[in-house]
Each structure stands twice: as structure tokens, then as C-alpha cells.
């Protein structure tokens, strides 16, 4: 397994991380046993970074990871946790809470659900518009001093917020959506992170399956938030899948899959970027791991740019109301 360091102050992690969100109902029902076996297969393949959020399945995802890690030494997995998103018993989103007292309460429950004594990377899921980022990061820094957190990360925030957070405590990485069809971070977010020595953990590298090469509209069902995502709506999804077919032709010439091309492209954008793969099944995990063996030449990268030029995606990555809440989109 190849490894990359998360920024100047962060840990060395596997060149791919496993995003576990889809194992807790965000894309509809998931198979618990297969999810656990996928986590085990990832660890056995050398993946060390597991990414979760305390609001994935209202704690279900953390408990699932905690169960999967039982019987293994704590240092086999680096656990990255997002906090702050609020949900009601129906699963509806209620906003964000990043007050210092809430941060410490969220962390206490996370430690219990994961059955661990510390979190490797702890990060606010989004910017709370009612709480200065300095207060939120200061509270996490208190937990670093107390030994409950090792490193501090950020998620979906823009350049100004990144600078303000980094002035309070070293930030190891920013987690943000970055893929062939989500290239917004290139404008001002990536340059600021590189200036400050902050790594990137890129989620949505397959745009939630849309550019995986396996997408079918029949794949969504009850509880799958993609049914509300603009890029998956009629009129947009057809245009986006046409881009995928262009990638498929290139992939075939290299003897690899579309998903492997898409993951390898993200990894090729810099050694400071670690793609998170959202595999829920072992077969998808093994396919994604194959991206590590894909070498993209300058000619390949130029061909990909022609097939999927920047801004080619039809539809935003989130519905309008959610886009308006993203500090990263104000960059």
C-alpha cells in the first residue's frame, strides 16, 4: 500500500481511504455483514484511513465501525470523524451545532460508539454560521490537549475559514468533494491549503456512483438521498452519463475500469490528496484498489480533460438550499 501524509502536521495514511457513510442507509439499505467484511478487507489490503460522521445513521455508522474493529489493535485504523450535523428521529436535517460545549458532548458519545479512547482526526462537518470557527476549533484543541483527539481537520469550508481555523491550531486536512465533475476547490481552496500545508481528503470521487461506470437509475430507492440530487435528475443525469461513456472508451484502451480512471485522476492531482472511496461491498472495494496501479500519462490527462472539461457536469452537487449553506461554495 502506498502512503501519503495529510499536510505538514498530520499522520501518514494509506493512499486511499474508506468512506463508510453508505454503510448506514444514506444510499438506501446496506447489508451489515457485507459492510463489516468490506471494512475488514480494506484493512487487510492496507487501507488505514476510515472516514465517518456521528450523524451517519444517527450513530449507526460509528457503532458499525466499532464492531468491525473489535479484536484488532487500535493502531490498525486511523479514524476520521465529522460532527455537528443535527437530525430528528425521521432523519430530517435540522442544521449544525458547533458550540464548544456541543463539540465536547458529541465527542464523548462518539468515543463510546466507536469503543475507542481517542479519535485520530476530528472535524466539524460544516461551518456553523452562529459560532465563530475559532471557538469550534478551540474546543477541539482542548480535546487534543486532553488526549481524546490526535489531529484536527476541516470539511467543506472556504479560504477565509481555513485561514482563521489554522491560526488557532494546526489543521492536518480539509475534507471536500473533489472529482472530475466537481472541481470547484481548484479555484481558491486548493491553493490556500497548499500555502498553509494542509492536506486534502477528497470525497465524492465517483460523484456518489454517477461516474463509476456502473450507474443505473434503478439503483436508487427509499432512503437514498441521490433521488433529490440535481445531478441525478432527469435532464441532467443523461448528460452526465454521456461524459461517462467518453471515459469508458478511454478506460477500455488502457484495460481498466471507468471507476479506476476517475479515482486515479483525483490521486494524480497531487501527493497531498487522498481519495476516499465509498465502497459498501468487497467487489467495489477491490475495483477501487486497482486504481493504485493505474498510471495516467500526460496524454491520458489531456484526453480526460477533453472528455470531461471543467464545468461539464449538468446540475449542482447538492440541492439549492444545501448549496447555499456551504461555506466552501462562497469561495
Automatic annotation (TrEMBL):
Q: Which InterPro entries match?
A: Aldo-Keto_reductase, NAD(P)_OxRdtase_dom_sf, NADP_OxRdtase_dom
Any one of the GO CC terms: cytoplasm
Where does the source fall among the domains of life?
A: Bacteria
What are the protein's UniProt keywords? Oxidoreductase
Under the heading PROSITE patterns, the entry gives: PROKAR_LIPOPROTEIN
Q: Where is the NADP-dependent oxidoreductase domain?
A: 16-307
Gene Ontology molecular function: any one: oxidoreductase activity
Q: What is the recorded name of this protein?
A: Putative oxidoreductase, aryl-alcohol dehydrogenase like protein
Species of origin reads Microvirga lotononidis
